[in-house]
Amino acid sequence: DDDRNEAEAILLNENLTHRIKSNSKSTPSHSQPIDMTTNDKEETNKSSNSLHNLYKSCGLSSKSKANPTKIFTMTEEICYYLSTVTENQTLNQYWNSNKSRLLLLSSIVRRYNVICASSMPSESAFSVSGFIQRKHRSSLAPETLRYLMILRK
To answer: Ranges of Polar residues compositional bias (predicted)?
Structure first.
């Protein structure tokens, strides 16, 4: 239970940090009133008509039939995740099917799921450095060893 509370606190902190960063990026330094001219309105109408025509030519309705999904808080997303996750689903299957419901958690999963869990690259680097820096070549300077490691790649 302590692990769960700690994980929830970490996720809430991550969400707060992400929200602060995104708000600072999207907040303009100066605000000006937005006034749409008639040309802007005509352009908007033309683009919406073009989009409507595209939908019509594809045999689709231009009106969205999808119901808007409720936006959950981080705590609600964690509860929803815990109640819906099953053992017979893979990580990718679960997050592909629930990314629209769990917006905050899915962004965290996308950010950290790409981290490789293997130690293969570091093991390979140590193996190569052990080969280059062996008894017969023990007089290599550290800088020369570094250059040889870079050239080896």
So the answer is: 23-37
pTM: 0.40
Q: DSSP of the chain, one letter per residue?
A: -HHHHHHHHHHHHHHHHHHHHHHHHHS-SS-------HHHHHHHHHHHHHHHHHHHHTT--SS--PPPPPPPPHHHHHHHHHHH--TTS-HHHHHHHHTTT-HHHHHHHHHHTTS----HHHHHHHHHHHHHS-GGGTT--HHHHHHHHHHH-
Q: What separation in angstroms does the CA of 31 have from each of 15, 20, 21, 39?
A: 27, 19, 19, 22
Task: Give the model confidence (pLDDT) of 129-138 as tens digits.
Answer: 676 666 666 6
